[in-house]
């Protein structure tokens, strides 16, 4: 089945260097989400009344998705910045980055999860090895028929392999949109809900730039990769972790 999938999708993927006006819609927040700098920058904000969020105009069926984020600085306890791929319906697929805010000086927790056919419970958490609030950093999801690789600034932090042969569902049949939101989750986000959001610090703001999708766009029941055009550098369709990447993955597990 995997060789067939690769042959179907290896012909041509859409490579999009992002413009937020073109690629995304702000879907909620009553003005708290903003697209700035001619589409080069997007910000989400949270105050006591509401958070905010956006979604991609396109749906994708496999790809390498990169976005640079600068997270809520200072006392971000109780807040969650979520960035993820998801399909719709009761048996949805989903690939998650969630950034759990914390008290000033304490590290953010990066929470990852994979849902397939509506089933999750595949959480892994990491402490980042830098302050993600002082500058932009690149968060990447590589999703192909064999594996999902989560990376931060090019360093793989997690690999979720396709183990359908062992009875483990893998997201490969449902196209997904990109979503992001900034919201209040102080009932669980920081120290299990013990630390509440300090609304005197509001508004809380997260920033996004340099979105890039090297991916198969799904539209009207067909993939942009179902083309007879020659392949244009879709190495991600069969990409796996080489020896160096495996070593970096193990390094990341040790420090987090």
UniProtKB/TrEMBL annotation:
Signal peptide positions on this chain: 1-18
Span of domain GH16: 14-208
GO cellular component: apoplast
Entry keyword Secreted: yes
Protein name, UniProt field: xyloglucan:xyloglucosyl transferase
Domain of life: Eukaryota
Active site: 94, 98
Places the protein is found: Secreted, Cell wall; Secreted, Extracellular space, Apoplast
């Amino acid at each position: 089945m995997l060789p067939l999938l690769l042959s179907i999708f290896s012909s041509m993927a859409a490579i999009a260097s992002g413009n937020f006006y073109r690629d995304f819609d702000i879907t909620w927040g009553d003005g708290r989400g903003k697209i700035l700098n001619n589409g080069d920058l997007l910000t989400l904000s949270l105050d006591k009344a509401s958070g905010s969020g956006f979604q991609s105009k396109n749906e994708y069926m496999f790809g390498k998705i990169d976005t640079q984020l600068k997270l809520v600085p200072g006392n971000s306890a109780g807040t969650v910045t979520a960035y993820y791929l998801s399909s719709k319906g009761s048996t949805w697929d989903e690939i998650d980055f969630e950034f759990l805010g914390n008290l000033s000086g304490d590290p953010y927790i990066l929470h990852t999860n994979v849902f397939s056919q509506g089933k999750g419970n595949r959480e892994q958490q990491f402490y980042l090895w830098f302050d993600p609030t002082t500058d932009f950093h690149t968060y990447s999801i590589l999703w192909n028929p064999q594996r999902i690789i989560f990376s931060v600034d090019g360093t793989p932090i997690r690999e979720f392999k396709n183990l359908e042969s062992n009875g483990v569902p893998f997201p490969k049949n449902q196209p997904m949109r990109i979503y992001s939101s900034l919201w209040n989750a102080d009932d669980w986000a920081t120290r299990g809900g013990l630390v509440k959001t300090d609304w005197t610090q509001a508004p809380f703001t997260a920033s996004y730039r340099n979105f890039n999708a090297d991916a198969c766009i799904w539209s009207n029941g067909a993939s942009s990769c179902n083309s007879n055009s020659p392949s244009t550098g879709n190495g991600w369709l069969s990409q796996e972790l080489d020896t160096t990447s495996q070593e970096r993955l193990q390094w990341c597990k040790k420090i987090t």
